[in-house]
Amino acid sequence: MKKPSKPPPPEVLAHDARYAAKLVEALSLLISQHAAEHHLTQAAVLGSLSWVLGRMIGAIARDGGTDLERLGEFIVQQLRRAAVGEFGRRSYTLH
Known about the structure:
This protein is mainly alpha-helical. The chain has helices spanning 10-37, 42-64, 68-88. Helix content is 76%, strand content 0%. The chain is globular and about 45 Å long.
């Protein structure tokens, strides 16, 4: 059994957070453009993203010896936070 590792220092987390936010924006734009170009439904987009997350969780658990259930719970928490945050944002439309 693996020993739990120490959490990374705050400066590493801040660095990761900045680049993670940029990745979120870049992926959101790419996904929106691809979905519009190929006339994908919202269900198709969400299904595809779920599939990608599932594959990534499985690979991380397999290759890193991490608990699959714990990773799944983490992803559900992150999804919930993101959805609540987005729901609370004001929607802007261009005219």
